[in-house]
Specification:
Keywords: Signal. The protein has 141 residues and is mainly beta. The chain has one helix and eight strands, in the order αββββββββ.
């Protein structure tokens, strides 16, 4: 019985050593810049469109700018489940044109970043926005 157990252990060790290792996901590149156009929808109002510029830092948070709305701020990561991350948005400038405290959900698929904004837990819970962002040729600052 001991010889059988030893053979089994050796066989398992040999099998584990010969199976090719699964390549780990490459570490996130620092300061990747993403750009795109957001589309906002609100019940009873025509959709509006505006530019988004998003730069992630090495901690998984981001700086977000809405150049055409003249406002922006930061996204603080609240949770991550697999490839889907959830952020709280804090507007730092141009507060009159952007809603502070929204929830952003984002996930990456290839060279695209899917971005969803929700006004739940703000003064404007019915507002939603979405965008598909692509990597910018210009890296973030």
């Amino acid at each position: 019985m001991m010889k059988t157990m030893l053979r089994l252990v050796l066989l398992l060790l040999f099998a584990a050593a010969t199976v090719p290792a699964v390549a780990a996901a490459p570490p996130a590149k620092r300061h990747l810049a993403w750009v795109g156009t957001g589309v906002q929808s609100e019940r009873g109002a025509p959709p509006s469109r505006w530019r988004i510029h998003l730069v992630f830092d090495s901690h998984g948070n981001a700086r977000i700018d809405y150049p055409s709305l003249h406002c922006g701020g930061v996204l603080i990561r609240r949770s991550q489940h697999g490839a889907i991350a959830r952020y709280r948005e804090h507007i730092r400038y141009g507060r009159g044109t952007c809603i502070d405290g929204g929830t952003v959900t984002a996930w990456r698929r290839g060279n695209r970043l899917f971005w969803r904004w929700s006004g739940v837990n703000t003064r404007f819970p019915g507002i939603r926005a979405r965008a598909t962002l692509v990597l910018s040729r210009h890296r973030g600052r």
